[in-house]
Structures are given as C-alpha cells and as structure tokens.
Amino acid sequence: MDLSQFELHDANLLGVSLDSVARTVEVRLAYYPSGHMQDCVLAVLSFSGVTRFNQITDLALLEEHAKFGNVSQFVTGEQPGVSYLYLARGLIEIVAASVAFSTKA
C-alpha cells in the first residue's frame, strides 16, 4: 500500500505504544477506509528503526473530538523517513527506517 495516498481524515487516535529499546512505535487508530463507509476499521501504523519521536497532544480535546474524528491528516514521505500525524490541536512526528500498515479483525 502506498502510504502517501492513505487518507486518515476523521480517524480516531486510540493509542500510541513506544518501545525505546526496540526503537519501535505503534499507533492504533479507528478509521473509515472510504468516504461512504459507516463503520470504522481498527488499524495499526507500525514504525521500526525509530530515531526520533515527538508527540504533542491535548488529551481533553482528543476526547472531545473523538465523535467527529480527532485525526486531521497523515503525511508520510515528505522527507525520507519522516511521518506526521496531525491531530485536533496536536501532532505526532516519527522519524523511522520503515512504516507498515495493518488492519485488525
């Protein structure tokens, strides 16, 4: 899957797991695979070879925006290895060697 074309507008951030020893980050999300679907799909963005991780979040605002979707945009590939997840009044920036996407049944 070409993650640069991946649309996460109106997704919900469910959680972030960081393993500093293994240098991995997992971002758990609920998202709509297409604009006409009414049910969310659970998914994980898995980053490996992480060299930098920054997160600024307003948890109260994330909770408030959860019914509308608290993710506004996912950007990857702007620079090699840099991904951004723009949130309602927040940002997650991850510099990693690779990123993979998977859905959860």
Per-chain topology:
Blueprint: E1 12-19, E2 24-31, E3 41-48, E4 52-56, H1 59-65, E5 71-79, E6 82-87, E7 90-95, E8 98-104
Antiparallel strand pairs: 1-2, 2-3, 3-8, 4-7, 5-6, 6-7
Structure, described:
The chain is mainly beta. Helix content is 7%, strand content 54%. The chain contains one helix and eight strands; from the N terminus they run E-E-E-E-H-E-E-E-E. It has a four-stranded antiparallel β-sheet with strand order 1-2-3-8, with no helix packed on it. Strands 4-7-6-5 form a four-stranded antiparallel β-sheet, with no helix packed on it. It is globular and about 35 Å long.
In short:
The protein has 105 residues and is mainly beta.
Oligomer: single chain
Helical content (DSSP H or I, runs of 4+)? under 10%
End-to-end span in angstroms? 18 Å
- Binned strand content: over 45%
Give the ordered list of helices and strands. Answer: EEEEHEEEE
Total strand segments: 8
What integer value in Å does the Rg equal? 13 Å
Q: How is the main sheet built?
A: 4 strands, antiparallel
Major beta sheet, strand line-up: 1-2-3-8
* Mean residue pLDDT: 88
Shape: globular
Name the structural class: mainly beta
Helices, by number, come to 1
Report low-confidence residues grouped into runs of 5 or more. Answer: none
Keywords:
105 residues, mainly beta, 54% strand, 1 helix, 4-stranded antiparallel sheet
